[in-house]
Amino acid sequence: QSTLVVAEHNNDKLTPITLSAITAATKLGGEVSCLVAGTDCAKVVAEISKVLGVNKVLVAQHDSYKGSLPEELTPLILATQQQFNFTHICAGASAFGKNLLPRVAAKLDVAPISDIIEIQSPDTFVRTIYAGNALSTVRCSESVKVFTVRGTSFEPAAVEGGSATSEDVAPSSPVGISEWVEQNLSKSDRPDLTGAKVVVSGGRGLKSGENFQLLYDLAETMNAAVGASRAAVDAGYVPNDMQVGQTGKIVAPELYIAVGISGAIQHLAGMKDSKTIVAINKDPEAPIFLVADFGLVADLFKAVPEMTAALRK
Amino acid sequence: MSGRVLVGVKRVIDYAVKIRVKPDHSGVVTEGVKHSMNPFCEIAVEEAVKMKEKKLIKEVVAVSCGPQQVQETIRTALAMGADRGIHVEVSAKEYESLGPLQVSKIMAALARKEEAQLVILGKQAIDGDCNQTGQMTAALLDWPQGTFASEVTLEGGHVKVVREIDGGLETIKITTPAVLTADLRLNTPRYATLPNIMKAKKKKIANMKPADLGVELASKLEVLRVDEPPQRQAGVKVESVDDLVGKLKEAGRI
User: What angle do CA B37, A132, A249 make, to 5 degrees?
Assistant: First the structure.
């Protein structure tokens, strides 16, 4: 048994979901190798070499890996697979992993498994279907199992204590059918939505983008990230990368505070694994109260500033 | 670009229906349940039809794989403005194990046969939530992929695609032919008007079998069981903000 984890990084730092993918890989048993492909990724190689559970780091550096284009990374992964014959290939179920691994799988002529939440055995996996309204247990009898890992379902691997060896692999020849132009990442001093211990989310009840300031103020008192429901995104209050839900981000913080969110199925799918859920909504019948540990039926425009004031004390 | 766009459309349980797991854990209840076109596929159809309206392409072909009922979904695409349809017939029994890999093989074979310049699909279907078919179709064709697209601009032999990624947006430029997958913000799909629904009845739907395209349907993924997710218990209602803050402190959350 041997597993390849395709590392997601920005040449400077590893993306946290890769640590969850490494944990999933260690659960399979056998050797765990990580592939770091980038333009100048020595720092990431050093970082991942110390991650507990990683045996070997494979490094491929080339200008064509700029922007992690799947057209360029796929031939590299195929060549690596041909050389090492892994039994499993995985990555985090992020925009990066979801974009890349199906392409790799199709080239290997195997059916991939998306967004797994549990490993029952090296060939049996559990994943959610219908926006989290059902769990599907699937057995894969492909010669190599290709899958992506839901970050909130696997604890991140420890970033200290490992001592992996590193090895250079030859970069694949550039394919040249795609070009990375630019990235516009939302800048924020608040913690990242998927990694934060506390998340405050707003819905249509906020009534405007300006009113999200109430949530930013509350978030600041708890070092929380700020999210939103699809309704708030569709209404144009906030950008889509703040969306929590089946079509947005899946989060599972210790504390999730839903403000002015009714609790559509698609939103619940993105946050119902949070350890403690608080709902603040003026409608006592809102379905969000059916999953909330603590529900406060109140006008959010009064309750949120009050809570911010109480926590600032 | 003056060519043909292939759009994949999938018939799924309507997004508003509450899913019920079958008592024998073999799947979810689909009989007697309202079905519609996968919402992401509607966005894909809309994008293709818009391209045609702007005269950037000549023809939009809507494709669906499945039993007889998927023809309704193809008709919906035709009523939205697709020119013709292709129904790749898969029996109800075979359809149960039909996965994204097999569908990708069908889409890739059709893209070659129809000499398509673009294949546009939804980024995922709301039943299986796999998010694979576009990426795999692109792989099988050795075409570039513009996935999770929120803005698409045709520029000569290139497509500029703005993609939804985890921290924001990313812009890529890919050559054509290419595969695109639609994310939510790409456009707002139109409703089919009654005159267009009537017109769609006259449009042609070709019928073929996967074998006609040289595609084998055997799958190495087997669903062992389908379960209800663990239910979360509703907690308590608190009376005031002070009460709430107190409870959260007690629970050690703040």
Answer: 90
CA distance A141 to chain B (A): 5
Whole-structure pTM value: 0.94
Tell me the shortest Cα–Cα distance from A165 to chain B, in angstroms: 30
Tokens of A287: 């379905």
Give the ipTM of the model, two decimals please: 0.96
Q: What pLDDT, in 10s, does the model give residues A274-310? A: 999 999 999 999 999 999 999 999 999 999 999 999 9
Q: Which residue of A96, A140, A298 is in closest CB contact with B221?
A: A140
Query: Which residues form the domain of B61?
Result: 4-250
Contact state of B184 with A135 under an 8 Å Cβ cutoff: no
pLDDT value of position B52: 97
Query: A106, A58, A64: which is closest to A86 by C-alpha?
Result: A58
pLDDT in tens, A88-124: 999 999 999 999 999 999 999 999 999 999 999 999 9
| Cα–Cα distance measured from residue A62 to residue A54, given in angstroms and rounded to the nearest whole number | 23
Rounded Cα distance between B145 and B195, Å, is 35
Chain A, 219 to 278: residues with Cβ < 8 Å from chain B are: 222, 230, 234, 239-241, 246-247, 249, 254-255, 265-266, 272, 275-278
Short-list B43, B120, B36, B30, CA closest to B73: B36
Which among B137, B168, B241 is the nearest to A307, CB-wise? Answer: B241
User: Could you give the CA distance from residue A69 to residue A156 in angstroms, rounded to a whole number?
Assistant: 25
Residues A158/A164/A170/A172 CA torsion (nearest 10 deg) = -20
Q: How far is CA A309 from CA A271, A293, B128, in A?
A: 26, 22, 44
Cα separations (Å) of B143 from A178, B104, B116, B146, B177? 9, 13, 11, 10, 6
Distance CA(B104)–CA(B108), nearest Å, equals: 6
Residue with tokens 């007697």: B32
Q: How confident is the model at residue A236 (pLDDT cuts 50, 70, 90)?
A: very high
pLDDT at residue number A60: 98
What CATH number did the domain enclosing B134 receive?
A: 3.40.50.620
Residue bearing tokens 């507990």: A52
* Residue B1 confidence (pLDDT) above 60: no
CA angle A289, A292, A295 (to 5 degrees): 65
CA distance A55 to chain B (A): 28
Strands across the sheet containing A198-202: A225-228, A198-202, A255-259, A276-281, A294-297, B236-238
Q: Across the interface, do B167 and A241 touch by the CB < 8 Å criterion?
A: yes
Domain count for chain B, please give it: 1
Contacts for A217 with CB less than 8 Å, ≥ 6 apart: A304, A305, A308
CB B224 within 8 A of CB B104: no
* B5 neighbors B60 (Cβ within 8 angstroms): yes
CA distance A55 to A165: 7
The answer to whether the beta carbons of residues A142 and B220 sit under 8 Å apart is: yes
Contact residues for B166 (Cβ-Cβ < 8 A; gap 6+): A94, A95, A96, A194, A241, A249
| CA A256 – CA A274 distance, rounded (Å) | 6
